[in-house]
Amino acid sequence: MRMALGPAAHGLIARDLTVIEIDSAYETILGLPREAIVGRNVLATLADADRSAAERQLRRILDTGEPRFFTQRHLRPDAQALWVNLHVSRIGVGDDLRLAVTCQPLREQTTSPSSVEAQWRMARLLLSAIRSGKQSFGSALIGNPATEILLSAYVAEAEAKAIQGREIADRIAVDWLLARRWLLALGNAGFVELERPGPIMEDTPIRLSPQALTMLEAIFGSLVAVAQGAPVDA
């Protein structure tokens, strides 16, 4: 689980995605002085794997004016990737359009990489088993949309990928309206969160809540321990 760490930082981005301004908190996050950042393309401050998704998010905000929340990794000079929560909104009009960024650094989970990988493999194994069971016995007997949604979101979290509502529906092989009802129920229960405000749409990015992530990690940790030979309570 990742938790908030340190003060929020703020910055301004131009329409061409170059950095206009950052504050001292952002200097600390990026590990570079202001003069080394201003004038650079903001995508250059992100981990390679996150740049395409970030560019789509930023250009959509510029086009629609709709503020967005999303999670990315800033890449520091020492090659350390720092997870951050970003809130980005459009300000100004015409040629003065800019993006205002609020950045909240996150603390990485303390689970070791080997444990994280083992839990990720366990989640994928469970999803595969459910899919096989549904094919053999039918979805009416095997499978539960809520469970499959949580597992799919966990796998996406472990792989540091965003997952959208429609993608979840496709992965668990249910129609979008049914998936949306389950997403609403899980959201109301506090187990999933939306990465942008508003109703749940097909392109709404979904992620696990910290509560759900902690609970699933505990379950997978127990399953991994059993698989490695730990005794099982009768």
From TrEMBL:
A Pfam family this chain is assigned to: PAS_4
Residue stretches making up the PAS domain: 19-65
NCBIfam families: sensory_box
Protein name as it appears in the record: PAS domain S-box-containing protein
